[in-house]
């Protein structure tokens, strides 16, 4: 797939250039982190299965999903709103979920996951999502606005990984 995705900032470029299995884009409002996270989906291998998770369904709908659909355009083959499942023309499947009930993230076997506004979810939701990464390279990328010295801040600053 030949995509014309050009980072608009050094931070986006650094995010995409990272080969880390777990990585995070932490930035202020308007820094392009949701766009970078949405674009990363289009860079994942064809036929992969992934999940996009935000703290609540309104946040998922109004930011993560909206940004992705604007970016993906004709690459969206089908979107089932009731099941919150999207199929791309590449065969990639995207499951859309909220983190407000972490146990509802259980079940799927995923190649990748994107957590948007991740500093606003619980450590439990993070752990459950990580446990779903049982296919392929098991990539997890996070994008978030800082939210003080919470669990995610400690994970990133202490270097224990996302």
Describe the model.
It is built from 5 helices and 7 strands, in the order H-E-H-E-H-E-E-E-E-H-E-H. The chain is an alpha/beta fold. It has a 7-stranded mixed β-sheet with strand order 1-7-6-2-5-4-3, sandwiched between helices. The longest helix is centred in the middle third of the chain and has 16 residues. The radius of gyration is 14 Å and the shape is globular. The relative contact order is 0.20. The model has no long low-confidence stretch (mean pLDDT 87).
**Alpha carbon gap, first and last residue:** 29 Å
What is the overall number of helices? Answer: 5
Order of helices and strands: HEHEHEEEEHEH
Please give the largest β-sheet. Answer: 7 strands, mixed
Strand content: 15-25%
Which bin fits the share of residues in helices?
Answer: 25-40%
Q: Give the uncertain stretches in residue-range form.
A: none
Shape: globular
Mean of all residue-level pLDDT scores: 87
Give the C-alpha Rg. 14 Å
Count of DSSP E strands? 7
Q: Which structural category do the helix and sheet elements fall into?
A: alpha/beta
- How are the strands of the biggest sheet laid out side by side? 1-7-6-2-5-4-3
